[in-house]
Amino acid sequence: MADGTAAFPGFKRDTLDDEIVHPDLYASWDIHEVYSKLRRDDPVHWTQPDGFRPFWSITKHADILEVEKNNKIFINHDRTYLSPKAGEEWIKATTGDTHLFRTLVDLDDPVHMKLRALTQSWFMPPNLRKLETRIAALAKEHVDHMASLGGECDFVKEVALWYPLRVIMEILGVPRSDEKFMLKMTQEIFGPGDPDVAGESDNKAEDGQTMTSDQGVDLLKTAQELFQYFGAITEDRRANPRDDVSTVIANGQIDGQPIGEREAMSYYIIVATAGHDTTSSTVSGGMLELIRRPDQLAKLKNDLSLLPNAIEEMIRWTTPVKHFMRTATEDYTLRDKTIKKGDGLALFYWSGNRDEEIFDDPFEFRVDRDVKKQVAFGYGVHVCLGMHLARMEIKALLNELLPRLDSIELAGEPQSTRANFVSGLKSLPVKYKIS
Questions:
Q1: Has residue 1 got a pLDDT over 70?
Q2: Paired strand residues for 409
Q3: If we measure between CA atoms, which residue out of 281, 202, 371 comes closest to residue 26?
Q4: 159 has pLDDT over 80
Q5: For the region Disordered, what residue ranges are annotated (predicted)?
Q6: Lowest mean pLDDT across 34-48, 81-95, 163-177
Q7: Which tens digit of pLDDT belongs to each residue from 84-115?
Q8: Is 228 helix (H, G, I), strand (E, B) or coil?
Q9: Mean of the per-residue pLDDT values for the chain?
Q10: What SS3 class is residue 300?
Q11: Are 114 and 255 in contact (CB under 8 A)?
Q12: What is the total count of domains within the chain?
């Protein structure tokens, strides 16, 4: 494996346990060597990386589902994602809680389900159908933009970033003039360990950790900016309700009482950030695989009825959310390993989506693969709220792009974000002919 310590000197690469948390590894294919070894030799692995609290690495598809289904035993609140001890301690000292935000992914039932219920119907297919025409128009706008660039562009920076962002901003009912602010906020939340993201702030991620004290200050500043921004949105939607998600959140109630300010602000943030970042990663990562596999691109172009399968394969292949954490509330036996009360577990979705027992030739990208069992959206009560919207967006873009695309090839080396939580391509230079 390539040595990534130069990019992330605060992380070690001395052991397999150190490798599995190293952000640099997630910007390469090397992480799959680690996953494959664990699936084969120790699928429920007690992991003790330097600088982190220990945890169980869960790498098999069936085990991920088992933990997700038992949401009363394995809870979210205590630990949502992998962070060095220094970062966890900073958050506790700063907020008095285990999290900076109180989003749906940070909470457990019954509060989680009550909050989720506020917008769940909004994100279901019957309601989303009213957006099909507008999403198709946005897809055409971005393919037209790609066509106007003279046959060469960075697909991530010109198309994949902006298209899903603009969909989400319309759903929230916020103006396009604020899109650069929203993109910046997303990158600062999901990419604090990536030098390209951190380099835009005053406190650079010199040690590459998920959160140093300096990065913590930056993240707190980002949170405060977002809280101020969405606070103004809340005031407006309470006075002037519209048919948008912001209105639903601003006027949301639980048990007859308005939801708390922190819960409301966190709700906006999870919709605004996760709602476009993961779709962007799927679109760009899927396009890269179609470029690398001309036979699969030709098969899809010749038969657009394969789009639902191809989209699921893109989601499986990219798995933008690499893991979520859970904490055991009681002792539990999994594959003859005793997980003790209070132990943390990392559910490695990217590994589950390469499980050889579930997927035939899992390291082959096939647009006609039947991928009903992919776990990129999670499972159970915490399954991704926006999964139907994501599929609709990707389908609209490919429906517009593929019939107009005569040819496409790489024009440079693709680059991925260095992050062990949410990651994907940050650059995809391409040459193409498009009508």
A1: no
A2: 431
A3: 281
A4: yes
A5: 192-211
A6: 81-95
A7: 998 888 888 888 888 878 899 999 999 999 99
A8: helix
A9: 89
A10: helix
A11: yes
A12: 1
Q: 184-200: per-residue pLDDT in tens?
A: 877 777 655 555 654 44
* Residue 106 belongs to some domain of the structure: yes
Q: Are 267 and 117 in contact (CB under 8 A)?
A: no
Q: Please state, as a whole number, how many other Cβ atoms lie within 10 Å of the Cβ of residue 80.
A: 20
DSSP state of 332: E
Amino acid identity for residue 337 in this structure: K
Looking at per-residue pLDDT, the higher value among 215 and 151 belongs to 151
Residues facing residue 218 across a β-bridge: none
Alpha-carbon distance of 88 to 99, in angstroms, equals 8
User: What would the pLDDT profile of 384-425 be if each residue is shown by its tens digit?
Assistant: 999 999 999 999 999 999 999 999 999 999 999 999 999 999
Q: How far apart are CA 27 and CA 337, in angstroms?
A: 31
Looking at the predicted structure, is the pLDDT value of residue 12 above 80? no
DSSP state, residue 324: E
158 within a domain of the structure (yes/no): yes
For residue 247, tell me if it sits in a domain. yes
CA-nearest of 347, 318, 317, 387 to 61 is: 347
d(CA 409, CA 223): 39
Any domain includes 4: no
SS3 420: coil
Position 202 scores a pLDDT of 40
Q: Helical H runs in 342-416?
A: 349-352, 387-401
Residue 95 neighbours by CB under 8 Å, 6+ apart: none
Beta bridge partners of 346: 57, 325
Looking at the chain, the whole-number percentage of residues with pLDDT higher than 90 is 73
Residue 432: what are its φ and ψ, rounded to 5°? -160, 165
Amino acid (one-letter) located at 252? G
Full residue range of the structural domain in which residue 289 is found: 16-434
Whole-number Å distance between alpha carbons of 295 and 113: 44
Please give the Cα distance from 25 to 168 (Å, whole number).
30
pLDDT greater than 60 at residue 429? yes
DSSP run (H or E) holding 168: helix 162-172
C-alpha count within 13 angstroms, C-beta hemisphere, residue 303 = 10
Structure tokens at 173: 């009912």
Contacts of 138 (CB under 8 A, 6+ apart): 163, 166, 167, 170, 396
CATH code (residue 20): 1.10.630.10
Beta bridge partners of 264: none
What does the pLDDT average to over 131-151? 97
